[in-house]
Input
Amino acid sequence: MKRRFIVNPRALSANKKAASIAALRKYFRSAQNGNGNGDSDVDIVLPANADAMTAAARAAIVDGIDQVVAVGGDGTVNAVAQGFFDEHGEPLAKSPTLAIAPWGTGCDYFRGISRGVDWRHIVTSGKDQLVDVGQIVYRPSGTVRVFVNAASLGMSSAVVRRQRAMPRWLPALASYSLPALTTVLDYRAIALTIKLDDQTLDAAFLAAFFLKGLYVGGGMRLGGAVARDDGKLDVTLLHAMGIGARLLRFGKIYTGKFHGDVKITKTIAKRISISAPVSQPVEFDGEIFGVTAVEISVLPRALKIRVPI
Output
């Protein structure tokens, strides 16, 4: 198997980077890596930014690589996955399998697929599965992006912006929960028009989440109502509410134990359109790219990923 690691160099502090990459090389050169024979050479690239990661993924396709391992967090996985699709959001022919090494601060997608299995064992001894990806079309430009785990807007986009400013030495849970808590205290609900298939909602919302994965925002279990390959999106809408009501629900949102709550709508949809009187940032897989209006849909079984057996 021809395997290539696309490593986000920002996923580790400078003093740990060399040691971590050395350990990665050692493990995958070893005959004890789960398949009986180690890699004679470990193919590693360290792109400088997200665009370079996408370009590296496209280069892997040209080079006939069988398996690409995205080494980093959700943003790294997304940047690499973008390279498996063209500018219209269509899957490129003969794309490799995407595997994940969760080295970043936010690894929600891997948390949802790993079932607690070591990522190295999944890379070497897992199985390939075709899964859905989400697709976002920005209007009026027509720019297309895909997402592997989740897209959202509202309070969640504000959390992403604040999370970017947090010290990198903080644990992953703290780097998400602290910005989330401060945003809960000061965020104002936004007016949105959300069309979910044939249903239109016109109201004030704190946040709207559209998931293929189980987790978002550093461990919030908002997903689980859809399968990885069923062509549907799991939708969670947080309606406008006061600060006290938000705080009462903060823990429920992280654990996913909010079913039946009148202020939190759960549903499933295949096609979604979102507009707002004031343009709102839309984040996907922890990255903010553009603003409303957007259309969100599903590309069925468009990406091959590595999962535990």
Summary: DSSP finds eight helices and 17 strands in the chain. The domain at 144-301 is CATH 2.60.200.40 (Tumour Suppressor Smad4). Residues 282 and 288 are 6 Å apart (CA to CA). The chain has two domains: 3-133, 144-301.
